[in-house]
Amino acid sequence: MDKILKVLPIAAFLISQFAFQPAWAEDTSAIEQRLDNLEQQVAILKRQLENYKEDAASQANTSPLITANSKDGFSIKSPDGNYKLQIGGYTQIVAREFADNKKDLGYESSIIPRRVRLQFSGTVAHDFDFFVQPEFGYSNTYSSITATAPSAYGVALQDAWIDWKYFPEATIKVGKFKTPFDLENLQDTRYTAFTELGLTGNLSPSRDIGVQLGGSLFNDTVNYAAGLFDGAADRENSYGGFATAAGDNNEKGGTGRIFIKPFKDTNLELLSGLGVGYAASYGKVKGSDIPSLISPGQAPVFSYNSGVSAAGPQIRTSPQAFYYYKSLGILGEKVNSQEELEYTGNGHVYRDKPTNRAWEVTGSYVLTGEDASYNGVTPRHNFDPSNGGWGAFELVGRYGELKLDSSIFSENFANLNTSISKENAWATGINWYLNHNVKLAVDFEQTKFRRGASNTTSTDDRKTENLFTGLAQLSF
């Protein structure tokens, strides 16, 4: 009996184990199933996370890059760089004050929005650049000798061109743009030493419509440009410019320019900023598309007599050079312009090929130690007096001369009583660059004339022009 009692607990335990074994087995199977499900869900989540990362990276690679900075303005660019749109522009507010000895000729002091320009530029399909620049400011000159204010406000298209740059050494430009001729005119207007161009600008085309082949060779040591253009007169900004309206009958003309910086990539630091060049143009100008010339104060000082017209070839040449070394800058050029003219008088046709000449030298020195350059001055420290920054200060000076061919007057193409035969101008000023975007300037320029009084009877020299100019410029 005792043995039975001892065996019963053992038997009961074994029976209970066998009896409940299916339940335990069932619970273990469910747990294993749940673990499998969790592992599958974790795997799915990991894959989804990887896909999310891939999508984010892909999105980052296809999203346009939007930037805004002081140098490039506002721009949108595709990640691969094949497409780009850049928006910029600048405004120049100019104050002119003539001294008393000039006001009796009819020119009063004025404050005008001299240049108000928007710029749209960019790249399409990697190989094509474009540039569009409308003008909303006042035109350049006084309308006549007796005008009391500059010509009225008007909207004009300054530039509109397309550049095919598949071969960087030989790009093709088509549209309206600056003619590759005058060194000072080719400089960006925001970076010129003075508000207005010097006397050589009287004998050079400003902008024209045409096609040009140009490029840079040997790491920018050699720059060249050659083009076929519609034909712009001296000082003319193509159609709608200073001397003509649309519809002139000029024949197409050619212009070419080469500019070399021979020591750019050498160890001769003293000469690395030297550049020399030569430009020439040839075309046939016809009809009334002949220039009137202006003073540095933008006053008309020369015009041909009524009935005089262009009647044949016009040849321009221009040797030119610049030199920049540390804070010092020098720019100089000479322009010769020969043009065939004619008029009818006393039953005869009078014809001649007078040659007009102009030259100038401009010097600059950055007082605050920044480098001088053809592309302006970048302040080392922006204007921020609380942190010791005052921007950059540049002292500038210029001297130039314009001389008209004596045959113009001896053969009655122009009248010495109302048109000058020569002008000499010197100027000095200071430019203050508060930062890359803001520039203030004050200039004084004195111009002396030979002949060209303001009426048809006086044989006196035109009175000396003493002009103070102030400039406030904002660019982006």
Notes on the protein architecture:
It is built from 4 helices and 21 strands. It has helices at 2-62, 100-103, 183-186, 407-410; strands spanning 65-69, 73-77, 84-98, 110-124, 128-135, 156-164, 171-178, 207-217, 222-229, 253-260, 274-287, 293-294, 300-302, 309-325, 328-345, 348-352, 355-366, 392-403, 422-433, 438-450, 465-475. A 16-stranded antiparallel barrel has the order 3-4-5-6-7-8-9-10-11-14-15-17-18-19-20-21. A two-stranded antiparallel ribbon has the order 12-13. Helix content is 15%, strand content 44%. It is elongated and about 125 Å long.
In CATH, the architecture of the largest domain is Beta Barrel
Structural class: alpha+beta
Specify the CATH homologous superfamily of the largest domain. Answer: Porin
The side-by-side strand order for the widest beta sheet comes to: 3-4-5-6-7-8-9-10-11-14-15-17-18-19-20-21
N-to-C series of helices and strands: HEEEHEEEEHEEEEEEEEEEEHEEE
Main beta sheet strand tally, sense and closure: 16 strands, antiparallel, barrel
Given this structure, which CATH class of the largest domain is correct? Answer: Mainly Beta
- CATH topology (level 3) name of the largest domain: Porin
Distance between the termini: 112 Å
Number of strands: 21
Domain module count: 2
Instruction: Kindly state the percentage of residues in helix.
Output: 10-25%
The overall pLDDT average reads 86
| Tally of DSSP helical segments | 4
List the helices and strands and how they pair.
Blueprint (H helix, E strand, L loop, with lengths): L1 H61 L2 E5 L3 E5 L6 E15 L1 H4 L6 E15 L3 E8 L20 E9 L6 E8 L4 H4 L20 E11 L4 E8 L23 E8 L13 E14 L5 E2 L5 E3 L6 E17 L2 E18 L2 E5 L2 E12 L25 E12 L3 H4 L11 E12 L4 E13 L14 E11 L1
